[in-house]
Structures are given as structure tokens and as C-alpha cells.
Design brief:
The structure holds 2 protein chains of 2 kinds. Chain A has 11 helices and no strands. By secondary structure, chain A is mainly α. In chain A, α1 crosses α11 and α2 crosses α5. In chain A, 48% of the residues are buried. In chain B, 68% of the residues lie in helices and 4% in strands. Chain B has a two-stranded antiparallel ribbon. In chain B, α3 packs across α14. Classes of the chains: A mainly alpha, B mainly alpha.
């Protein structure tokens, strides 16, 4: 194949230039977070710190630790519950189809595209009514409910790939709804659970609208607290950047260590995938 | 899989006597399946459709204070909204943001996916670099880019020598502006900063989708084109890109529904901006409802947002059902 000689070097230059664009915020984030406040001047923004100063991490951690903990208390049960619910729904909608199942599925799917503003006012009234407003369990509940469409979609697509013949032969052997799920579907769906759990973990950890409207002060998850850091009169950019890194760390770690499943979830979330 | 099911049901229908519908036997297991699905179905109908109806009712009520007022107001809140300077600016901003954001994500997504398809050394490293912003929250993205676009610094230190000095997100300049109703129609300069941040965050999604699409194109297609003497450029422009069109359709739908309801990025990065140059309906709804206690007005904004998203999503969902999941 006669490619011109300049083509390869050009491609690498392009890849490096684009990488620089994507990494630029990370560089600024790290550099700024390691500077003492008096070095965080606009003119020195791009420079490396003269000495490494960890104090902004200490300040950020002190301010964000309670909210970080709130996020963990939120994300763990919400992820587990919505994965479990999604698995059951996906199982029913792929292997126990009934008349109108596909219409019902489409109606469920619509719930994942709606702007949540369109349900927010009744939701808050409802949570107040049942005493879950401004509580972490309230937020867990909200994320489980509005996670139903996406987790159902992901598991339904995942289970659709398991051949129906397997189910049929299990039925002939006398296995029922529960045993087929427990002995055939569950063991085969480890990957499915990993993909869905990563997706839900990332989304719930990063979510802001529900968090900011349903919780106040000491019940707020990390993203709301991070946003509030900049609310004070003087923005301490070094603390702000350290806080942003701390808030981003869990999902970044998930991405670094389980990136393959992360991308799979990304593609599974795009309906036609 | 779905096609099979469809065929079976059509066959059943054909053999069944039209008036007496053939009933499938429901075993105990079928009932069990229904019992397990029921809670989710009830939750969705209540919390999605029921609550949308409820919001719709609030939007035509007089509830514009702390105390709920359920008296009927007709379309008053909508009339107010469409005559409101801020909401008109929001509609302009949403349109500008959506068009710019989707266009750049598609072009950059295709470019980077094709680049990654060239069997570069360190391909997986590049891929990880392009994808990682997807793992971040819009709030983190907003906070960081706010610092990068800080007026008189940040990216300006690079752009000043090129004569592109700008106050960025505090700038009220509207490019190509002309009066339209109450607002100046055009591209708010400050919005470009928000678009850059959103592109940085979301391009990885498009790259992932296009890359999956590229990997699905058999090598024979490329080889055949090369045999016929097509250059690499012609190969991609004339053969590969047209094959990726269905993916572009999906990318447009996904990005459009994200941009029409965008809230956290704008809220964390710029807020409404001077003269509402970076305001969007999501931010307006939040401030009106939860800061100003104008619940009926907020609900009306929410319903307009829902309708704009539904315009894209409903045809998409219906067509993907017909196409077989």
C-alpha cells in the first residue's frame, strides 16, 4: 500500500495534539492543586509550582469528607438495588415475554430520556409527604426508580443474547421461573452485572440535579458540596482544584481499572448500540 | 430474536379465528414473572407518567408562591414564558448550544475514531485519553473549565498573541446578532466556552460509538476499495463515512437529548451569565422554582423542556422498536 511518507508522522502529530487538548484540564487541575494560594495567580496559571504544597488537599478533604461519605452511603445501595431490579426486569422482558411486552418496554425506556425537571416538583412533594425529603435513603429511592429504564434495557439486551433453547430445555427438566433465573441466568450474567453496576455507580456518583434539590447542607452528596466550594466570596482555586480531583477520583479509578466494562456500558446505554 | 417473536405472533393471528382470540396458557411461572415485573411498571407509571401529568397540572395552576395554589390559570404561565426576555434568550442559547455542540462532537468524534482506526502505536493509550472525561461529572468539568476560561488568563494566554483576546464567559458579545423579538439573535461568545467544555466531556462517547462502527466494517470492503485504486481519503470519504450514517443518527439523538436538558455543566461553570448569555432552560427552571418559589412558572419551563426532548426521542424509540431492539 503506497501511503505517502508524511502520513504516519502527521497522524501521530494529530493524535498527540488531540491528547494535549484532552489532558490540558488535568494538567491545570494537578498543577493548581499543588500550589500555595499566593502562587495561584492568573499569570502563573500554566507554570509548575515552585514547591509542592499539599495543604489545599487537606483543606478540600476537611470540607468535603462528610459529603464524600454521603455519596458512598448513597451510591452503594442505589447501585446494588438498581442492578438487581434491572436484572429481574430484563429477565422477564426477554425470556417471559407476554402480549404487549415490547410496548411496555418502550414505555419504560422513555423514562430514561425525560428531563428530570419535568418530574421534580411532584417528586419533592412526594418525598416530603413520606418523610424521605433531605435524606440519603430518599436519594437512594430516587436513583433506583429512575434507574429502572436504563438497567432494564441493559439486562434485557444482555439476556437476549442467551439462547432461548437453554431456557426451553431447563423448563423441560422441570425448572421454573426462579430456578432458571438463579441457576442459569445469574451465573451467566456476571459481566452484565459488572457493566450495569459501573454505569449506575458512575451516573449516581456524578449526578447533581436530584442531589441539589432533594438534600440540604449536611446531607448533600459530594458534587453539590464541590459546587458550593466556589460559592464563597473568594474562590480559592487551589482548594477548588484539589476538591474537583477528590470528587472525581472514585469514578476515575473505576474507569482506569475497569475501562473495558465502562465503555461497554456506554455503548449499551445508546439503545441501538 | 425479536423478529422471530413477531413472526410467530403473526402466524398465530393468521390461524386463529378473528373474533375468538387464541389465549396463550398462563402457567404459575408466567404469573410469577408478572409479579416480579409489576413493581417496576407501577413505579414507572407513577413516577414518570403520573408525575409528568402532575407537573403539567402545576404548569396551568396559579402556584407561584411558597404556598401551593391549585386554582386553574389556563395558559397564563406559558404566555408569560414566551414573552419573557430571559426565556427567549434561553431558547436562543439552547438552539445555538445544541447545533454547535452536536456538530463539533460528530466531526471530532469521526476524526478521532478514524485516527484510532489507523493502527497507531499506543492506540489504547490515546483511546483512554479521549474517553476518560466520560467518567467525570459535569460539575467537575464545569469547575475546571471555569478556571481555564477565567477572563484575562487561562486559554487567553495562548490566544492573545493570535489577537483572539476575549473575556469569555463574562463576555456579552453576540456574534452575528440581529434583533428578533426582545432578544438579540446570534451566537453568544460566552456560549462558545460552554460548548468547548461540553465537547471535551462528551466527544469520547461519539468516538466509542464510531469506533465500534468502524470495527464492524469488514476488512474486505476496504481492501476492495483499495484494489480499485481508491486513495485512503477517498476510501473514508466515499465508503466508510456513508456506512457510519446510522451511528451518526444515534449520536445526534443522544447528544440532542443531553443538550436540550443540560443543567449541571452550565450551573457549575457560568450560571445564567450577564444578560443571560449562557442561561439555559434547565438553569432557569431551577432558579425560578427552587430559589424564587414560582412553581407554576418552573413547571411550565419543565414541560417545554420535556416536549423539546420528546420531539427527538419518541420517533427514535418508535423506529428502534420497529427495527428490532
Amino acid at each position: 500500500m503506497a501511503k505517502p511518507l508524511w502520513a504516519r508522522p502527521f497522524l501521530y502529530m494529530l493524535a498527540l495534539a488531540m491528547s494535549a487538548f484532552f489532558l490540558l484540564p488535568v494538567y491545570v487541575m494537578i498543577v493548581t492543586s499543588l500550589k500555595p494560594l499566593d502562587e495561584v495567580t492568573l499569570a502563573d496559571m500554566w507554570k509548575l509550582p515552585s514547591t509542592v504544597d499539599w495543604s489545599s488537599y487537606a483543606t478540600a478533604f476537611e470540607k468535603l469528607a462528610p459529603n464524600f461519605w454521603n455519596s458512598i452511603l448513597l451510591v452503594v445501595p442505589a447501585t446494588l438495588l438498581s442492578a438487581l431490579l434491572g436484572a429481574l426486569n430484563g429477565y422477564v422482558l426477554s425470556k417471559w415475554k407476554f402480549k404487549g411486552a415490547d410496548t411496555l418496554f418502550t414505555l419504560i425506556l422513555f423514562g430514561m430520556f425525560i428531563p428530570y425537571q419535568s418530574i421534580l416538583i411532584p417528586l419533592i412533594q412526594f418525598l416530603r409527604e413520606i418523610g424521605l425529603y433531605n435524606t440519603i435513603p430518599g436519594l437512594v429511592f430516587v436513583h433506583v426508580v429512575y434507574g429502572i429504564p436504563i438497567t432494564t434495557l441493559m439486562f434485557r439486551n444482555f439476556y437476549a443474547a442467551i439462547p432461548d433453547e437453554m431456557i426451553e430445555s431447563a423448563k423441560i427438566d422441570g425448572a421454573g421461573f426462579v430456578r432458571i433465573f438463579r441457576d442459569i441466568m445469574l451465573p451467566l450474567s456476571i459481566t452484565g452485572f459488572v457493566v450495569v453496576a459501573i454505569w449506575q455507580f458512575t451516573n449516581i456518583w456524578n449526578e447533581f440535579l436530584f442531589a441539589v434539590t432533594i438534600t440540604t447542607s449536611d446531607k448533600q452528596p459530594i458534587m453539590v458540596a464541590l459546587q458550593n466550594l466556589s460559592g464563597s466570596q473568594i474562590v480559592q482555586w487551589n482548594v477548588q482544584m484539589a476538591g474537583a480531583l477528590l470528587a472525581a477520583l472514585p469514578t476515575l479509578l473505576v474507569y482506569i481499572f475497569l475501562g473495558k466494562y465502562f465503555v461497554r456500558g456506554l455503548l449499551a446505554g445508546s439503545v441501538k448500540g | 430474536m425479536m423478529v422471530e417473536t413477531v413472526n410467530v405472533t403473526t402466524a398465530e393471528k393468521a390461524t386463529a379465528v378473528p373474533t375468538v382470540r387464541k389465549k396463550r396458557k398462563w402457567t404459575a411461572d408466567h404469573w410469577l414473572a408478572a409479579v416480579f415485573l409489576a413493581p417496576s411498571v407501577i413505579l414507572i407509571f407513577l413516577f414518570v407518567y403520573g408525575f409528568i401529568g402532575w407537573t403539567g397540572y402545576v404548569s396551568v395552576s396559579n402556584w407561584n408562591s411558597l404556598v401551593p395554589d391549585w386554582s386553574f390559570a389556563g395558559l397564563k404561565n406559558y404566555q408569560y414564558l414566551f414573552q419573557d426576555f430571559r426565556f427567549q434568550a434561553d431558547l436562543r442559547n439552547t438552539l445555538v448550544f445544541t447545533v454547535l455542540f452536536i456538530a463539533v462532537v460528530i466531526v471530532l468524534g469521526q476524526l478521532l475514531a478514524i485516527l484510532l482506526d489507523q493502527k497507531l502505536r499506543g492506540e489504547s493509550l490515546f483511546r483512554n485519553i479521549f474517553f476518560f472525561p466520560m467518567a467525570l461529572s459535569f460539575v467537575v468539568t464545569g469547575v475546571v473549565w471555569q478556571w481555564l476560561f477565567n477572563p484575562s488568563t487561562g486559554v487567553n494566554l495562548f490566544l492573545k498573541p493570535l489577537g483572539l483576546d476575549s473575556k469569555w464567559y463574562t463576555d456579552t458579545t453576540i456574534l452575528g446578532g440581529f434583533q428578533w423579538g426582545k432578544i438579540e439573535f446570534g451566537v453568544p461568545l460566552a456560549m462558545i466556552a460552554v460548548v468547548v467544555a461540553a465537547v471535551w466531556q462528551m466527544t469520547g462517547f461519539a468516538v466509542a460509538m464510531y469506533l465500534a462502527g468502524l470495527r464492524a466494517i469488514p476488512d474486505e470492503v476496504r481492501e476492495a476499495a483499495r484494489m480499485d485504486g481508491a486513495t485512503e481519503f477517498q476510501l473514508y470519504w466515499k465508503i466508510v463515512l456513508p456506512l457510519l450514517r446510522p451511528i451518526t443518527a444515534s449520536v445526534i439523538i443522544i447528544m440532542a437529548h443531553i443538550s436540550l436538558k443540560i443543567f449541571d455543566l452550565v450551573y457549575a461553570m457560568t450560571g445564567p451569565g450577564a444578560n443571560f448569555v449562557t442561561d439555559v432552560p434547565g438553569v432557569y427552571m431551577f432558579e425560578t422554582t427552587f430559589r424564587g418559589n414560582y412553581y407554576a412558572n418552573g413547571a411550565a419551563i419543565a414541560i417545554v423542556m420535556l416536549l423539546s426532548v420528546a420531539m427527538f426521542i419518541v420517533p427514535y424509540l418508535v423506529s428502534s422498536r420497529k427495527g428490532g431492539s
